[in-house]
Automatic annotation (TrEMBL):
Role this protein plays: Catalyzes the Claisen rearrangement of chorismate to prephenate and the decarboxylation/dehydration of prephenate to phenylpyruvate.
Tree of life domain: Bacteria
Record keywords: Amino-acid biosynthesis, Aromatic amino acid biosynthesis, Coiled coil, Cytoplasm, Isomerase, Lyase, Multifunctional enzyme, Phenylalanine biosynthesis
Nucleotidyltransferase among keywords: no
Protein name: Bifunctional chorismate mutase/prephenate dehydratase
Coiled-coil zones: 2-29
Domain Prephenate dehydratase per the UniProt entry, residue ranges: 95-270
Entry EC no(s): 4.2.1.51, 5.4.99.5
Pathway named in the protein's UniProt entry: Amino-acid biosynthesis; L-phenylalanine biosynthesis; phenylpyruvate from prephenate: step 1/1; Metabolic intermediate biosynthesis; prephenate biosynthesis; prephenate from chorismate: step 1/1
All residue ranges annotated as the Chorismate mutase domain in the record: 3-95
CDD domains linked: ACT_CM-PDT, PBP2_PDT_1
Main location: cytoplasm
Amino acid sequence: MSDELQRELALVRQEIDGLDGQLLELLNQRARFAQQVGEIKARHGEAGFIYRPEREAQVLHRIQEENAGPLSNETVTWFFREVMSACLSLEQPLGIAFLGPLGTFSESAATKHFGHAARLMPQISIDDVFREVEASHADYAVVPIENSTEGAIGRTLDLLLTTPLKICGEVVLRIHQHLLSNEASLGEVKKVYSHAQSLAQCHEWLNRSLPHVQRISVGSNAQAAQLAAAEAGAAALAGQAAADRYSLPQLASNVEDEPNNTTRFVVLGRQEAGPSGRDRTSLIMSAHNHTGALSKLLAPFSDAGVSMTRLESRPARHTLWAYVFFVDLEGHRDDGAVGAALAELARRAPYLKILGSYPMAAY
């Protein structure tokens, strides 16, 4: 290395060291202000909910709008989420329930939304995830609600019918499936473990690459990785988190049939989220069993200029051949147009439950 090169690098590195010192000072200053927020809330008797999803969403949107690069919006969003997570943990680490074990896509979604300072609480079923928050053993739940390839997650929709919890956020996660195994080649794989949805998402790839290999559905991708790590001739379809946690090499990467495979998760809590400026409202409704009933229920949205982004039917479970409809709207229930449409819907629908108004996923 030439002397001139060393001098040029030394000058740049000196600037970087100086900026690192400033960043450290500013991060700690931000943490002290976050502590002051907690103290102010405590004095006014509002210390119960230290996490405000609408406030976090507003911060992230502002950061994205101000970001001039070269860092991408996705990168700066990740960084500031981690900063906010660390600051919140100074008051009290949030307990986040999700479908376990560790290494699932649900863990990745929980970490993406709440950061690495959150206290992860894996559960053995989606029912248990709901119960942990309903019983106040956890602060929030993160559960999958729909996949871009396989559609709605039925058990989540069924539990939303009866839970007192509110949707207060959402997470959108790109799903990359990898074939994980301790075997050296595809030819040595005799069975593939995975969650039923992951097997379906990789159906065509499995038909082409492992047509005669046994496919075994298990409770989660992380469980599949655990089994594959312990069994000769076994492989698992799972994500990078499971590969890292169970030290399994990738025999094949990104084997999902749909390259844009994405799962949407919702965040459930015991409080309502306020308006953030970029919100979504989710609800469940039923319709009378006669011609034009559903059209009459949807009319208030178009009349008020409210955009409906999702309509999904689901058996009502309590009555044979009766159905309820899950609806997503753009906007917050406190917005004038959305509020007016919901008020009119309440007059028309035999059954209506507002699941929550919450910030749209930032990234």
